[in-house]
Amino acid sequence: MRGTGRLAATLGALVLATTACEAGGASGSDLPGLVEPEVSSGIDYVALGDSFSAGPFIGTMRSDPEGCARSRDNYPAFLADWLDVASYTDVTCSAATTTDLYGTMTMFNGATTGPQLDAVTADTDLVTIGMGGNDFRIYDSLIRCQSGQPCAVDDLTADARKVAGRIEKAVRRITNAAPAASVFVVGYPDILPTQGTCRAVGVRADVLGPVAEVAEVLNASLRRGAEAAGASYVDMESASEGHDVCAKGRAWVNGPQLRPGVAAPFHPKVNGMRAVAVEVFGEFTGEEPEVTEYAEPDPDVIVLNEG
Question: Quick one: pLDDT at residue 7?
Answer without folding.
Answer: 43
